Every structure is written in C-alpha cells, then in structure tokens.
Amino acid sequence: MRITQQMVFDGFLKNINQNRLEMSRMQEQIASGKKVTKTSDSPLSFKQARLLESQIRDKEFYQTQINEARSTAQVAQQSLDEVADRLIEIKSIVTRGANQAQGAGGYAVLAQEVEHLRDELLHSLNVSSSSGYVFGGSNQDQIPYSTSPTALGGVEYAGNQLQTSVEVENNSYVQTTIPGSTLRDADGLDLFETIENTLSALHSEDASSLSSQLENYDTLIAHISDQAANVGFELNKMDFLEERQEMITNTFKSELSSLVDTDFAETFSTLQRTELAFQSAMTVHSQMMNQSLLEYL
Amino acid sequence: MNNLVEISKSGIKLAQKGLSTTAQNITNAQSAGYTRKRLVSVPEQFSSGSGFSGLGVKAADFDYLRDMRTESMIQSKHHQKSYLEQKSLVFSRLETSFVSDTGGDLDARMQNFLQSFASLAGSPSSQTKKAEVVREAQQLIGSIQQLDGAISQQKEMVQEQALEAVGQVNRLMHDIHSLNEPIKQAMQRNQTAFDLMDQQLLKIKELSSYLEVDVTRQENGQVSMHMGGIELMGEFGVNALRTHSNPDGSGLELRFQRSGQLLSVQQGKLGALLELNNEDLFELQEDLDAFVSNIVARVNHEHEQGISTSDTQSRSFFAVDGLSAKSIALNSELVANPELIAVTDPLVNSLNGAIAQNIANITEAKLMDGKGPIEFSIDFISRPGSEVARVNDELALRTTELELLDAQQQQISGVNIDEELSNMIQYQQAYQGAAKVLESAQIMYQTLLSIMQ
C-alpha cells in the first residue's frame, strides 16, 4: 500500500480536529455546567428536559397559587376569629343587660359598647388580602359591607354568593373565602339583624328581650366558628398539597439535572483523556513528518 | 562506434525526462486534484542481419495514475455530503433562533399565557391579573412571530443561495465544456493533457457538490454529463439551468433555460436548497400557522362565551382575522382596556372565573396530532435541532466514506515524496551512467585516432 505525505497529513488533521472538537465540547460542558444546552446535543434528552421544565413550572405556579390562597385564607381565618370574639363580647354585654338591673344610663352605655363592637365586627368583615376583599364572594373589588338604614340589620351586602376557588393542583381547587351572605346567615338568623335587635332591646331597657336573645348569639358564634373551621380545613389541605408538590418538584428537578447537567467527574476524566490523545497526536505527527528520505540526501 | 554515442544520448535524454517528471510530481505534491505521472520507458532496437541490436531507450508514454471508478464514487459521495452539509447549516441556524437557554421559548410563553388565565380565574376582578394576561399574550405573540420571522428569513436566504448555486452550476458546466476541446486536440496530437484533465476533474468534483451528475469520458478525452437521462453537457455545448418560482409562490423549481423542461434534483447542495425551500421550511411554517389558527380559534371560542366585569358584550380575545403566525394579534379593545377580558360565564349571573378557567384548561386540550399546546410547542422548537442531530450523524458517515475513498485515490494518484526522491536518485544515476558510456566511447575514439596518427 502506498502512503503519501498528503494521506499522513490528512489523517493527522482529522484526528487533531476531532480532539479539538471534543475538548471544546468538554470545556463548554464544564464551564456551563450543562451537557445539553440545545436540541442537537441530544434531541431526546432535550425534549424530556423541556417537558420536565414545563411540569416544574406547573408545580411552581401551583405553589404561587397556594401561597396566594393561603394568605387570603389566613386573613379570613383571623378575621373570623375576631368576629367570633366580638360576638362573644356582645353576648357578654347581653348577659349583663339581661341579668343585672342597670343604673341610670347603664343600658345606654351597654348600647354604646355594642355599637362600637358592631363597628369593629363590620371592620373585620370588610378585611382585604392581596387578592381583594375577602368576604365579598367573587366580587373582590368592592367593599362588601356598608351601613344602610334601609337594609336588613342596618348593613347592606354588596358582594355575591359565589365562593372564589383557586386551582392549586391540576383540576383541584380550594375555597379561600366565604361569601359574606353565607357568613351573616346562620340558618335564617341574620347576624346584623340580631345585633340590631339587641341594640333596640338595650335602648328600650328590655331585660327579658335581651335574655331571649342569648341563644341567638350561641347560634351565631357556633356558625362563625364552623366557617372558621372550614377555612382551617382548606388551609390544612393547602399545606398538604404544598408539601406534596415540593416533593414532586424536587423529584422532577433531580430527574432534570440527571438529563442536562454535566457529570463533572466523568467530563474531567474525558477531557484529560482527550488532551492526552491530542498531545500524543501532535508529538507523533511532528516526529513522523521529520522522517523523510530528504533528511538522508 | 556511432551506435554507442546514440545509445548513451538516448539514456541521457530519458534520464532528463524522468527527472523532469519527478520534479513536476514533487512540486505539485500539495496541489489540489493533482495526479502523479510516471514515465514509461521501452528499449529501442532494430533488427540487423545478425539479429536484434540495441539503439538505446525511449520514453513510450506517461501513465495517468488515477482510478476513474473511485473518482466516480467520490463524486457520488460528494453530492450526498454537500446535501447533508447544506441541510445541517440551515437547520443549525434555525435551531439557534428556536431554542434559547434563557427559558423564554415558545413552550414557556404558551404555558405562562395559559397560567395567567388560571391565576385570573382565582381572582376574577383583579386588574393586575388582567394586565398580566395581556402582557403574557403579547409575549406569546412575540415568540410566535419571532419563530415565523426566523423561518421566513431562512427561506429568503435559501432562495438567494439557490439562485447563486444555479449560476455557479452553469459557470462550472461552461468551464468543464471549455476544457473538452484542448484535451481532445492534445490527444489527437499524441500529447499528454493530464494537467487539463486534472483541472477538469476538479471542476467536475465541484459541480458534483451541487447536483448528482453522471459523467462519461469518451475515448477522445472529452466528457459529457447527464442527469436523469437528460444531457446537461456534451458536444453540442451546455444545457444551462435556471430557477423557476411557482406562480402561487409555494415552491422553487429547476428548469432548463432553453426548453423550460423541469429537472428533478434530489441530492447535492442544490437538491438540499430546493428541498429546504419546498418541503422543510414550508412544512415548518405550515405547522406553525396551523397551531396558531388552532389556539386562536380555541381561545376565542371560550372567550366569546363569557363576559367581562365591565360589560356584557361578547368579544374575541385575539383579532379574528389573525389566524396565521404572521397575522396573529390581540383584540385591540383588550389591549386598550384589559378590564374587557371575559372572565365570567353569563349564565351564572354573577362574577366568577369560569371562562378564565376554561381558557386555562386549554392546556389539556389535544390540539395538534393528539398533542397539547405545551407538548406541541416543545416538539416544534425541537424540530430543527433534531434534524441537525440526525443530519450530522449521517454526515459523519458520509464524511468517513469520502475520506476512505479519498485515501484510496491518494494511494494511486497521490505523490509520495520519498518515492519521488528515490526516483530522482535513479534518474541521476542513470544520467551519470549514460554520460560515462559516452565518455568511454569518446576515449575509445581518441585511442583509435592516436593509433592512426
């Protein structure tokens, strides 16, 4: 077989180029920390990685939704606790008015306290979170409760009866708020009407009427506590879902990493091997090219 | 005695001729397409009354050391390789435009757009979330139009390159044809035309990178070229080519300038350019348009079912006439006032996020070939890169085959400096030997002359 200088040179160039290409690929992988940065690096891994990234984005989106929903639910729960506290305080005033004879102006003072507590209660029910008003149903832009002399119990509700639900997992929703209409209605007993009745009894100094209203407050307190418990249940559900999603996200991230991230140990060792091959090719070539009959003439 | 002088003279002449062949080989060792030559010598003799007598040596011929079968295979691999190289180049450019490592590609944009509706469904009256929906929709449109722009740009470049390639093919055919006559004349005069043949082969090799041609060399040294049974170049001259755009603008064809006859090109750079323009890029654009049309129709259908928080009018989300990647646009009313985004199902008669949620749920719909919008987006942006990987794998095979064939040809036609130097020594010694014979003959003459004096 004839071997020409051109063949030797072509072979040398081919090997040198291959080694250079491989070294550049390894250096890029080490510098970027990624072994797959574009589709052509590995079409299958790239597509799988993109699908995983999309699922991770999904989970991260749901975590954002949960955080937002949790913030609203926590505000709702805190507000409901405040409402229950105010009702307990009103009930205590009603008990005092029903059991003890009040001195001159005593009922008026009690009525003033109840009015003050009703305003606080109204304030608690008009609470808002980052998403808007918590107890306006799905109408979160408008203040839900406002005083109106013509409305039932002197308080008008501007929201709607819909619960806002937030998607926290694929096709899984949590209710973050309770519509104000549901909140004020305890099986036909209106929260503000009951307070208004208490105020009329106090203004008319009617102890027996006050006594008959005590049971209504028990019903209202139980109703508000039930609603707070429902919110608590949703909060627990969110905690559980968040934990699960974190776990799934971590699994996806680890899977993603194994697909696209550089295996440093392996890459370093390949780089060293390629460098050695490159140096050997250079040495052998420079020696071979000096071997010619020309040197002996 | 006179015989001796003639014999040594022929030896000196042959050694000179051999040395010049060797010198030519050595100096052209690196010249592209050069074929080494070898001097063939034969003894010269005549018959006399007493038998055959030597008259020295003569150069019978020069060997043109190139294997034409291997050459034909090299040409065939050459157009396959050029075809793959051209495809790899265009798909690599597209891959760069389709996929970034910043995460803002079509798949992410599509997902963010649909998620912005899911987020709005949880807070249907939120102005911030409606503004976010508009922002994400604009980002999605930007991403789609960027993809479409990249495909269109490549299409334009491919068409320009095809025009240039046809011009180059015509020039090469004329060059090859113009070498036919000098080769024929040289052969008629029994002269060597090896360097002209080398030049012609180089041009043929270059031509074969553009399209697959069958080359035939006739006995008189002239070459003719055919493609698909049609003569491209022959004794009549050159059958020049031109590109032809279909009237509907869908495709680019190759036709003969004179007859207008259609020429089918499957391989080579020209074959790749035509296929890229008429099939690959066309299909990419067609699929992107179909996807856009599908998404626009789906989102608009859901959006038109609902009402906004501001009024009860039914509106489309995207502009209704924007059903392609080029024309997709948001409904200008929504851009001006995001409050008009439909979120509520009017049948419920109260504010809810049902419509926004329905649009968000499009993420699960099977829109294209049984694939959801995200899956299709990933598949779509991966296509150029997948093609690059596939083409490069095949290209590596063709390159190896071509290298092997080149090496085979080099074994025959390549110059080995050691071999040539060794020949040089042989010719040098032959020259010295012949000169010595001449010197001896002279001495013999002088001896004879001195006796006579």
Task: Note down, in words, how this protein is organized.
Chain A has about 300 residues and is mainly α. Chain A has two domains: about 5-50 and about 260-295; about 75-255, f41 fragment of flagellin, N-terminal domain (Up-down Bundle), CATH 1.20.1330.10. Chain A contains seven helices and eight strands. Chain A has helices at about 5-30, 45-100, 105-125, 180-185, 190-205, 205-260, 265-290, and strands at about 130, 130-135, 145, 155, 165-170, 170-175, 185, 190. In chain A, the strands form four sheets. A two-stranded antiparallel sheet of chain A has the order 1-2. In chain A, β1 (about 130) and β2 (about 130-135) form a beta hairpin. In chain A, α3 runs antiparallel to α5 and α5 packs antiparallel against α6 (about 205-260). The radius of gyration of chain A is 38 Å and the shape is rod-shaped. The mean pLDDT of chain A is about 90. Chain B folds into two domains: about 1-65 and about 415-450, no CATH class; about 70-400, no CATH class. By secondary structure, chain B is of the alpha+beta class. Helix content of chain B is about 60%, strand content about 10%. Chain B is rod-shaped. Chain B contains ten helices and nine strands. In chain B, the strands form three sheets. A four-stranded antiparallel sheet of chain B has the order 3-4-5-6, with helices on one face. In chain B, α2 (about 70-100) runs antiparallel to α4, α3 runs antiparallel to α4 and α4 (about 125-190) packs antiparallel against α5 (about 195-210). Chains A and B meet through α1, α2 and β5 of A and α2, α3, α9 and α10 of B.
